[in-house]
Amino acid sequence: MNKTPVSVFIDSSSWISFVIPTDSNYLRSLNIFQLFTKQTKIYTSLFIIDEIITKIRRVLDQNEADKLYRRLISLEKKRALNILAVSKGDVNSAMNLLRQYPTPNTLTLTDATNIVLIRKYKIETLFTFDLDFKKFSSPSLTLLP
């Protein structure tokens, strides 16, 4: 990607790669995070925070999970990160999206809520290492990397 995205939704796979140095995508995530500027509108969701805190607790420990959570909340307070709530209506829309991609598809409810929120807030870029999202790439949604 040559230009800095105006808005980006960060999926759990990207946060996890950024935080865990032994992750196979660690260096790629560092390079991509460096593309973002103060003008980049960065989004994630409460569902994503649930996933990353759970993973960090398992792979690292509770202390690292606490540090990450405090950092995310600090970024939100500084308006450098928008943490989006997921409403019941968003979950209903996500369930409708899942019905369009029935099993054995590996698309999760959280993945589907990401797409719902991206569409709802007109976010132009999704930063994820999850290949399930390739099917959602379009002129209105760019995937990183």
TrEMBL record:
Any Pfam family matching the protein: PIN
Gene3D superfamilies assigned to the protein according to its UniProt record, in alphabetical order: 5'-nuclease (3.40.50.1010)
Alphabetized GO MF terms: RNA endonuclease activity
Origin: domain of life: Bacteria
Signal peptide from the UniProt entry: none
InterPro entries listed in its UniProt record: PIN-like_dom_sf, PIN_dom, VapC20-like
Domain PIN span(s) in chain numbering: 8-136
Protein name from the UniProt record: PIN domain-containing protein
